[in-house]
C-alpha cells in the first residue's frame, strides 16, 4: 500500500520555488521509485489528474500526468499515468485553448486558463530513459500545469 502524502497549499513557500533537477545518479533509485509511487497514490486519493513533487514538499523536477475521468474532471480522456523526470517543454503550438483548471494545492478554486493546444515534451523515465513525445488537448494542459509547478507558478497566476 502506498503512502498518501500531505499536499502543500498555495500560501506555502515551497510552491514558489524553482525545483531542482533529478541527478543522473538518482535514476532508478529506491527513493525516486517510492516518491513516484506515493505521488501517484496521493493524486488518486485526491481525484487529481496530475501532481508535481513540490506539491508534496519535495522540490524536485518530478511530475505525474494521468488524465482520467473522476469527480473533479468527469470529461477527462483516459490515459495511463506517466511519470516524467526533469520534463522540458520543447515546443508549444501556436494554437491555444481556454480550459478550466483546478489544483490540489488550491482547493475549491477553479478558473479558465489559456494554454497551448499541443506541446512537444522531453522527459526521462524513472530508469533514466529519454522520451520525446507530443501531447494535445487535456493531457497537454496537464503537462503545462504540472511543469508550471516545477517553476514555482500556480494556475491562479495565469487566470484568463
TrEMBL record:
Which residues, by range, are in coiled-coil regions?
Answer: none
Molecular-function GO terms, alphabetical: metal ion binding; peptide deformylase activity
**Catalytic reaction list:** N-terminal N-formyl-L-methionyl-[peptide] + H2O = N-terminal L-methionyl-[peptide] + formate
Q: What is its EC number?
A: 3.5.1.88
Q: Recite the UniProt keywords alphabetically.
A: Hydrolase, Iron, Metal-binding, Protein biosynthesis
Which HAMAP family does the protein's record reference? Pep_deformylase (MF_00163)
Report the protein's function: Removes the formyl group from the N-terminal Met of newly synthesized proteins. Requires at least a dipeptide for an efficient rate of reaction. N-terminal L-methionine is a prerequisite for activity but the enzyme has broad specificity at other positions.
Task: Report the protein name in the record.
Answer: Peptide deformylase
Organism lineage string: Bacteria, Pseudomonadati, Pseudomonadota, Gammaproteobacteria, Moraxellales
Gene name, Swiss-Prot/TrEMBL: def
Amino acid at each position: 500500500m502506498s503512502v498518501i502524502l500531505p499536499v502543500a497549499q498555495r500560501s506555502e513557500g515551497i510552491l514558489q520555488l524553482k525545483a531542482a533537477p533529478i541527478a543522473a545518479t538518482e535514476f532508478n533509485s529506491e527513493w525516486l521509485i517510492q516518491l513516484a509511487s506515493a505521488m501517484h497514490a496521493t493524486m488518486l486519493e485526491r481525484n487529481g489528474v496530475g501532481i508535481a513533487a513540490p506539491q508534496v514538499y519535495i522540490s524536485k523536477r518530478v511530475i505525474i500526468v494521468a488524465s482520467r475521468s473522476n469527480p473533479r474532471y468527469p470529461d477527462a480522456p483516459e490515459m495511463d499515468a506517466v511519470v516524467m523526470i526533469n520534463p522540458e517543454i520543447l515546443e508549444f503550438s501556436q494554437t491555444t485553448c481556454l480550459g478550466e483548471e483546478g489544483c490540489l494545492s488550491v482547493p475549491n478554486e477553479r478558473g479558465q486558463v489559456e494554454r497551448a493546444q499541443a506541446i512537444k515534451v522531453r522527459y526521462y523515465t524513472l530508469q533514466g530513459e529519454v522520451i520525446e513525445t507530443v501531447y494535445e488537448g487535456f493531457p497537454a494542459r496537464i503537462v503545462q500545469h504540472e511543469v508550471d509547478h516545477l517553476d514555482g507558478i500556480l494556475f491562479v497566476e495565469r487566470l484568463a
